[in-house]
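So, is this right?
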Amino acid sequence: MRWVMSRLLLDREKPVKMQIYHWLKERIIYGEFAPGMILEKNELAHELNVSPTPLREALILLKHDNFIDMVPNLHTRVKLIDVKRVEENAFIRAALEGAVVEQLALSGISKAVEKTCQKLIDSQLGAFGKQDYASVFHIDLEFHHRLVDQLALDSLWDNLYANRAHLDRARQCSPVNVAGIRRSIEQHQQLLQLIVSGQAQPARELIKAHVWSVFDDLQQIAPEYLSRDH
C-alpha cells in the first residue's frame, strides 16, 4: 500500500534536522523508500536543498530508530522490515490501547466524543468506497488519537505513536488488503459500541485482535523485504 509523499517544505524557524528526520521516516514507513533501497546522500541533500550536516544528523536518528543502516564511506541503506520489531510494536500498542479502551468503557465517554468518533468511522467508509486508502489510514490514526486523548494523559499518544512506526510500516509496505481494510473499519464501529455500552473486557479483546491483524499483512509482503533477525 504505497503513495507518493509530498516534497519537504522547510520551515527555517524550526530545527531543520527534525524536519528532515520526520520527512524521511514517513517515506520509509509509507514504502516510497523501499526495504533494502540505497539512499544517495548527495541526491537527498540536493532534493531537500539542505547542507550535509542536518541530513547526516537526521540519518543518525533514523539509524537509532532502526530504519536504516549506515556503513561509513560505503552506503546508507533502508533496513528490511524487522518482524521482531513489528511484534514488539504490536505488543506495546495492544497493551496500552487495551488499557485505554477498558478505562473508557468503565468511565464512559461523552455524547460529543461518541458523535465525533462516529463521524470518523463514516468518513473512513466514504474514503474506502472511493478506494482512497491513504485517507482511510489517516482517519484511522485520528480515530485512535481521539480515544486516547479522552484520558487526558499528555504524553500517552506520543508514546503510542512512537511505538507503532514499524507496525505501520509493515501495513503500508504490504499489498492493499481490501478485505482487511474493511474489517478494520468494522472493528472501529464495534469498538465504539462496546465502549459506549460499558463492555470493558470485550473492548480490550477487540483492540488486541485489531492490532495483531498486522500479521495478516506481513504474510503478503515479499520475503526479500523481511528480516527475522533482531
